[in-house]
UniProtKB/TrEMBL annotation:
Cellular component terms per the entry's GO annotation: cytosol
Known catalytic reactions: D-glyceraldehyde 3-phosphate = dihydroxyacetone phosphate
Pathways per UniProt: Carbohydrate degradation; glycolysis; D-glyceraldehyde 3-phosphate from glycerone phosphate: step 1/1; Carbohydrate biosynthesis; gluconeogenesis
SUPFAM superfamilies: Triosephosphate isomerase (TIM) (SSF51351)
Phylogenetic classification of the source organism: Bacteria, Bacillati, Actinomycetota, Actinomycetes, Pseudonocardiales
GO biological process: gluconeogenesis; glyceraldehyde-3-phosphate biosynthetic process; glycerol catabolic process; glycolytic process
Enzyme class (EC, first level): isomerase
Subcellular location: Cytoplasm
E.C. number: 5.3.1.1
UniProt name for this protein: Triosephosphate isomerase
Any single Pfam family the record assigns to this protein: TIM
């Protein structure tokens, strides 16, 4: 299983460091991590990445960024490039989140360019996809498959590949009191896994009001979870790791 968290901008640098120290202590002492049944990642704000790598890396927690520039260098004031992210120890990068689309005007072309930038640099894109309105599983799966294909098209045309994580986050479930219904998540997750297996390969994790108690209800349709505010208390991570053990996950499930 792959379990990750994005802190967005909810945490200060100090609080992020505190959370990571607690998570690292939990990871070091937990059988789910020691056995390889779970891989963990965390995505802090840019300035915290170097400290996060030093704290979480030794505990086996990968560190990623919440955004990436489309270009590798040049006159792009304020941007943070893939090569610099890799240089400071990031190994993953979030791309295509609904909030980037809604608040910063990122469209399919921008998401595709950032996905290419991540793969070009050897970073693993955590590609966020999801339907905007609640719909039938079939129509939702069709919409999300199209988002994946669009995001990967430039990289495919350039012959650039690499590890891919797809974070299925139905927009209507982001920030909601409850996650999407488990049966919906399982059906969409299974469809996306089949789609990736027939093409570039990759893992599918669920995000969108995800937290403790959800994984046992969706585990047969996804490869993990992408956590948010329901894991702001680091104790939630230990609960979720316990759930992984109860499911009987193995290192093969962590891929």
């Amino acid at each position: 299983m792959l379990i990750g968290i994005s802190f967005k901008t909810w945490f200060s640098h100090a609080r992020t460091v505190e959370w990571l120290r607690a998570a690292a202590a939990t990871a070091r002492g937990h059988d789910a991590v020691a056995s390889g049944a779970v891989r963990l990642f965390a995505m802090p704000q840019f300035p915290t990445i170097p400290a996060a790598v030093g704290i979480a890396g030794p505990a086996g927690i990968a560190i990623g960024a919440q955004d990436i520039a489309e270009h590798d260098d040049g006159p792009w004031t304020g941007e943070v490039t893939g090569p610099v992210l890799a240089e400071v120890g990031a190994t993953m990068v979030e791309v295509g989140h609904a909030e980037r689309r809604a608040h910063f005007g990122e469209n399919d072309d921008v998401v595709a360019a950032k996905t290419l930038a991540a793969l070009r640099t050897g970073l693993t894109p955590v590609l966020c996809v999801g339907e905007t309105e609640r719909d039938t599983p079939q129509r939702a799966a069709d919409a999300v498959r199209a988002q994946i294909d669009s995001a990967l098209a430039p990289a495919g045309a350039a012959g650039i590949g690499g590890r891919l994580v797809v974070a299925y986050e139905p927009v209507w479930a982001i920030g909601a009191p409850q996650p999407a219904p488990p049966e919906h998540v399982r059906e969409i997750g299974s469809a996306l896994r089949a789609h990736l297996a027939a093409g570039p390969g990759g893992e599918v994790i669920y995000g969108g009001s995800a937290g403790p108690g959800l994984l046992p209800r969706i585990a047969d349709g996804v490869d993990g979870m992408f956590l948010g505010r329901f894991a702001h208390d680091p104790a939630a991570l230990g609960v979720i790791l316990d759930e992984v053990l109860a499911l009987g996950a193995t290192p093969a499930d962590a891929r």
